[in-house]
């Protein structure tokens, strides 16, 4: 027994030693930077931050550059980027979401100047380092605060996402997003809206689908495999049983933590974060379980919209979210057509049905 206990304690001791070494590294870095005079806000420690990793093709419009890469190869792509490194890139689908995150950070720093619990944006790209100058020039042009870059030179970013304790990963590459989802990292593939929309510059607005996004796909499986009536019956029978969590539950939780920091300063009515549940569920037939699940988790949602199968696009036009997460491509495409920036979460049984159609 004692031998077994000794073996079990070794990994935990190694993890504890690693954590202590990491803390010493951060303390040394902080001591160095504390001696530097700068007006720039320093990035928070990953342990304290809500880290949002964004790919270069999500942050900027790189459609033409991607075409060159696919048609002419890597060398011509790098050459093009270097020849155009002083040409500022246009915003991509995640750009206005990132800007909104940074405005929330500015408000947090006003209220909590010594607190590190805020968003930290990391540029996570498989671009080669030679392309970095153009990305830096564009980031500085728009006044974005993105100090941490990972340019992996074509290698998978998943290990780096884990190292940065990433809370959300946004990319234009669906394969990398699926890889991240499988690794347990909240992720979504970004799609550009087909119309220009004016977004709020005072409030971050984030809209979520429910099943297979905030919640697991357990109820959606019933619907897909046994039909709508059986789904309604199942939800009513299990009304008081919380749903399991889905891939974006953690990010909704992160937003809720920041909202409470504003509420603590009597800023509830002026909170710069607003969350929306936009679900195809019916309220009377299957809505109670959703609301009770959120309550059991201690989470608040600012607005809950039960559409009973109606299209989501028109409602999203009214909300004008900086990002809308959904697991089904036909909802993503419907949102896109009417001007909503949408993010596809490749999780759950809907992916199986999409592949088979």
TrEMBL record:
GO molecular-function term, one example from the UniProt record: 5'-nucleotidase activity
Pfam families noted in UniProt: 5-nucleotidase
Alphabetical list of PANTHER family matching this protein: CYTOSOLIC 5'-NUCLEOTIDASE 1 FAMILY MEMBER (PTHR31367), CYTOSOLIC 5'-NUCLEOTIDASE 1B (PTHR31367:SF0)
Biological process, per Gene Ontology: adenosine metabolic process; nucleotide metabolic process
Record-given protein name: Cytosolic 5'-nucleotidase 1B
Top-level lineage group: Eukaryota
Chain intervals with Low complexity compositional bias: 1-15
Region of interest (Disordered), ranges: 1-24
Entry-linked InterPro entries: 5-nucleotidase
Any single Gene Ontology cellular-component annotation: cytosol
């Amino acid at each position: 027994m004692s031998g077994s206990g000794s073996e079990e304690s070794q990994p935990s001791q190694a993890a504890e030693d690693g954590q202590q070494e990491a803390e010493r590294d951060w303390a040394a870095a902080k001591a160095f930077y504390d001696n530097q005079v700068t007006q720039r806000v320093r990035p928070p420690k990953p342990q304290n931050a809500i880290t949002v990793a964004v790919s270069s093709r999500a942050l900027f419009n790189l459609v033409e550059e991607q075409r060159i890469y696919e048609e002419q190869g890597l060398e011509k792509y790098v050459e093009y980027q270097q020849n155009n490194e002083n040409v500022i890139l246009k915003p991509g689908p995640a750009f206005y979401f990132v800007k909104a995150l940074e405005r929330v950070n500015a408000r947090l720093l006003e209220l909590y100047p010594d607190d590190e619990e805020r968003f930290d944006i990391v540029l996570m790209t498989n671009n080669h380092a030679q392309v970095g100058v153009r990305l830096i020039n564009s980031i500085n042009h728009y006044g974005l605060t993105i100090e941490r870059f990972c340019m992996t030179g074509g290698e998978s970013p998943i290990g780096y996402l884990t190292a940065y304790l990433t809370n959300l990963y946004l990319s234009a590459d669906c394969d990398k997003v699926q890889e991240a989802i499988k690794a347990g990292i909240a992720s979504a593939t970004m799609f550009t809206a087909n119309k220009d929309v004016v977004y709020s510059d005072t409030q971050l607005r984030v809209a979520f689908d429910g099943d297979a996004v905030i919640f697991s796909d357990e109820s959606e499986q019933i619907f897909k495999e046994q039909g709508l009536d059986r789904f309604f019956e199942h939800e009513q029978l299990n009304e008081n049983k919380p749903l399991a969590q889905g891939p974006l539950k953690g990010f909704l939780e992160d937003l809720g933590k920041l909202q409470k920091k504003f509420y603590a300063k009597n800023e509830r009515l002026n909170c710069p974060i607003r969350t929306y549940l936009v679900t195809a569920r019916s309220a009377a037939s299957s809505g109670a379980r959703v609301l009770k699940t959120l309550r059991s988790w201690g989470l608040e949602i600012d607005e809950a919209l039960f559409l009973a199968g109606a299209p989501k696009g028109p409602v999203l036009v009214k909300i004008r979210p900086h990002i809308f997460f959904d697991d089904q491509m036909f909802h993503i495409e419907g949102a896109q057509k009417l001007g909503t920036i949408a993010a596809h979460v490749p999780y759950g049984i809907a992916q199986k049905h999409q592949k088979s159609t």
